[in-house]
Amino acid sequence: MLRQYELVDRVLDYDPGADEALLNRAYVFSMQAHGSQKRASGDPYFSHPIEVAGILTDLHLDGETIATAILHDTIEDTVATPEEILAKFGPSVARMVDGVTKLSKIEAQSENERAAENLRKFLLAMSDDIRVLLVKLADRLHNMRTLHHIKNPDKRKRIARETMDIYAPLAERIGMYEFMREMQSLAFRQIEPEAFESITRRLDALKEDGEDRVEKIAAGLRQSLSRGGIDCEISGREKHPYSIWRKMSERHVSMEQLSDVTAFRVIVASEEECYRALGLIHRRWPMVPGRFKDYISTPKRNGYRSLHTTVMHGQQQRIEIQIRTIEMHHQAEYGLAAHWAYKQDGVRPDTQIRWIQDLVEILDNAASPEELLEHTRMAMYQDRIFAFTPAGELIQLPKGATPIDFAYAVHTDLGDQAVGAKINGRVVPLRTAIDNGDQVRILRSKAQQPQPNWLNFAITGKARAAIRRHLRQKERSETVALGHKLYDEIVARLPVPVGEDALADALKRLKLPDEATLMDAIATQKVTDAQVMEALMPGSADQAEIEALPPQQRAISITGLTPGIAYTLAECCRPVPGDRIVGVRRPDSAIEVHSITCECLDAAQDAVWVDLAWGEDAEGGIARVAVTLKNEPGALGVVATIIGAHRANIMELRFDTRDTTFHTNTLDVQVRDAAHLMKLLAALRAAEAVSSAERL
Fold it and tell me: Domain HD, which positions (predicted)?
């Protein structure tokens, strides 16, 4: 463990003007606060914050950040209070300590809720000051280095998984690749111990078999570049076990089949020499197609800049080469932390970085802990592509992203109003995958709204969070609207009209905060009709007479409501406008709409039924039809022609049975109403190629 004077001397070595008194106060305060506490290793607990501070001195971070590292566990694990930290160390350190605090004392019902709440508060603090993230990453790195001292294997795996899912991607997103690689290796060792040991053994064997192979290749590279007039530093290393395992999993190959296990780094003096070195290497050794990436002209979102290429080097051996300047290398190793070094005095990066803003937006939109974790992990994972707006702005997206992801990356309003897209001038569906370098133009309409099926192909956390937020708002408004209709029908069944204050009194009796909450509760049957009647007019629905409640007075219109939002159309009978319908109400569920002739209603006798009506200008529906055709060429084409001629639309087609004479197909057909469907069926039955056509 670092002694007090050693830690202070480290900071003063790179920042002679650092506040020595602040560091000394923090050291003494933390040591006294933690007292005799011990870690799982048996070491004094105080050794942990000091080691975290030591990690951050290697990054040459400012005195306030070092003090925060020393104090980061005092609020959670000791009797120290936020007020004490504020009084002794100032508002900046106090704010950062509060942001880094692990928050493990939060009482939650599930592990997901605990992790999500931890992440929520941490990300909000990080958006205010990025140094919170730097301290937290150093804290997690030291915890991972000492993870083997924890005896409980399940706890070790949980911490390792959390590191792999959240903290390693965060380190990558701010360009701290050394932190990312070490956390991934340590976590991989716990999550997949057998794979880790197997890959490590093979790497050790490779080192023994070709101990001088890496140096020989490096010497050959150095000689080729030197002849071209480029003075450089070259180093080679095997990729770490997790990186190798991930490539094996992605490519479905064994380790022996991986030919680019070794990577070489070429450090040159200038950006111009990066490209010159690349040209010399490509002239000397053939490049592997598709493996060249220019992160100098198009840096990663975390600021990473470098040239990557893979070449065939002797005996058909692939080697990966990274070419960069000294400044680029420093940025690649320490990322955003490099901007906080004391030498950059007064120069601070914009903490409201685009991706942090995206994460904060996801926090605002997430409805559950599971959704927050899902969307945040999506937003942080690293495999990315580059696409361009028509104006030439570069947009970075995950691999597999679609125009809907692109639209939300540009602006939330653009995503909400997207109706289509042009990729490289060609009109494509919104579900089309974007390739690297594509130019994307989003076609928009103010009448458009986010659609539920967008969730089937949107892959970014920001897009999915925005879509789900809109759908939740729409579901809430439509559920409240349906609740109002049900409420009006309940009021009509009361023995006498209610007074003006009846609703306010009912809210008090039901202990509900407002009218909208009551309407939502009625629509989802969180409260029964009898409870609402009794709350509006005490005595009108006495418990002894509940069975004799007045019957429904009139059918309730579902016009203006969206299927799948306020109500669902039953899959068993697929009702369409014109069918006589009934709603089945179950607690905490949307009303399920059935045709009155549906056989499944027999199984719903215990549920509450409500008489429904389509209302005027109903928007049509999807009916399921079974069509038996003669087994002859062109028969299915005849059916498609008839359906098209009747202005109906085939949504899905399945082949059910087929023999030498006939084959039966099931079609889901979009029609206006029941009368439209009947005309369509009559036309199908009249066709020579059709043996029968029936609605299912």
Answer: 45-144
Q: Is residue 309 a contact partner of residue 278, using CB atoms and an 8 Å limit?
A: yes
Q: Can you list the alpha helix ranges (DSSP code H) found in 146-211?
A: 153-162, 168-173, 177-191, 193-209
CB 197, CB 185: distance < 8 Å: no
Q: Looking at 73, 77, 416, 592, which residue is catalytic?
A: 77
- Taking the C-alpha atoms of residue 333 and residue 62, their distance in angstroms, rounded to an integer, is 18
pTM higher than 0.90: no
Structure tokens at 141: 């790195």
Q: Are 276 and 325 in contact (CB under 8 A)?
A: no
- Residues of 49-77 as b/e, b for ≥16 C-beta within 10 angstroms? bbbbbbbbbebbbbbbbbbbbbbbbbbeb
Structure tokens at 199: 């890959």
CA nearest to 165, candidates 244, 112, 92: 112
Three-state secondary structure readout of 396-453? EEECCCCHHHHHHHHCHHHHHCEEEEEECCEEECCCCCCCCCCEEEEEECCCCCCCHH
Q: Is 452 left (phi over 0), alpha (psi -120 to 50) or beta?
A: alpha
Annotated catalytic residue 238 = no
Half-sphere exposure in the Cβ direction for 613 (13 Å, CA): 11
Highest mean pLDDT among 15-29, 356-370, 388-402: 15-29
Q: Between helices 241-251 and 193-209, what is the axis angle to 10°?
A: 110
Q: Which of 20, 76, 238, 271 is catalytic?
A: 76
The Cβ-side half-sphere exposure at 629, using a 13 Å CA radius, reads 22
Active site residue 117: no
Say which DSSP state 16 is in: T
CA distance 281 to 266: 11
What is the three-class DSSP state of 486?
Answer: helix
The set of residues, in sequence order, having a beta carbon less than 8 Å from that of 433 and lying 6+ positions away, is 400, 401, 402
What does pLDDT average to over the chain?
82
pLDDT score at 124: 64
3-state secondary structure of 241: helix
End-to-end Cα distance, the chain: 76
Residue 471 CA to residue 584 CA, distance in Å, equals: 23
State whether residue 593 is helix, strand or coil: strand
Write the pLDDT tens digit of every residue in 384-415.
677 888 887 778 788 889 999 999 989 989 99
Q: How confident is the model at residue 165 (pLDDT cuts 50, 70, 90)?
A: confident
* Cβ-contact 561, 477 below 8 angstroms: no
Type of residue found at 100: V
